[in-house]
Design goal:
The chain has 255 residues and is of the alpha+beta class. It has four helices and eleven strands; from the N terminus they run H-E-E-H-E-E-E-E-E-E-E-E-E-H-H. Strand 9 and strand 10 form a beta hairpin. The longest helix has 31 residues. The radius of gyration is 30 Å and the shape is globular. The N and C termini lie far apart (98 Å).
Amino acid sequence: MEKQNIIDGIRLIVIIGVFIFMVIGSYRNIINQNKVTSTNTYIDKDNEIVNSNLEKEEVTNIEEKISDTDNKEYKEIRYNLCSIDFDPSAGTFGSRIDTLGNAEALGKSVSFPRPSYDGKYIMFTLSDYGNFSIWHKEADLWLLDLTSGDLRKLSEVNSDDTESFHNWSSNSRWFVFSSRRGDGLYTRLYLASMDENGKISKPFLLPQEDPETYYDRSVYSYNVPDFTSEPIKIDTRVFEKKITSKERIQVQAKK
């Protein structure tokens, strides 16, 4: 009994000690929360080691300045729509570059250009800057008519939210694209058709047996869509070897 009392007493002392330690630690954090410093060691131009102690507020201001500079520079990056000579037999690029669409003149940036398989059009995404348009609310789909050179915004399919990744069907009469128009958070895949005169239909989601579960409750985003005629079964290891090999398969473009 006496032995048990001793053990209980030790346990009580340990518990009290831990409690006091936690209280003291919390008190120190409260006292020093506005006096946190960052110590940086660097070598100056005279090869002397220098330590600089910066108050937390100063560190925050410096980080904000760096972040603002990076954001400003990134927002000035813009891409035009261009073409370049290509030799399909050798798999090499030439030196001649032509500008097909001057997005910079519009204060915009091109991303994801996709030519139709019949060679008549190039569809691309246009946003304010950069090339990761999936996060740009202002991103829209545009179309370049390669026959006439006309360039236009696809008002038939664009919304007030993001339109981004897209691809053509093999007969160039359909295209699929990703959009955040539903809830502004998740991208869903929309389909639209195009007739022989370039008239585009109203976009729609693929009908589902349970659309509420499939679309409204889904937490998945669909990007880089493409058309297939059947389910794709692929061995990733074989696929990787094919991509990284120097083997080339000759193809004949449709005219």
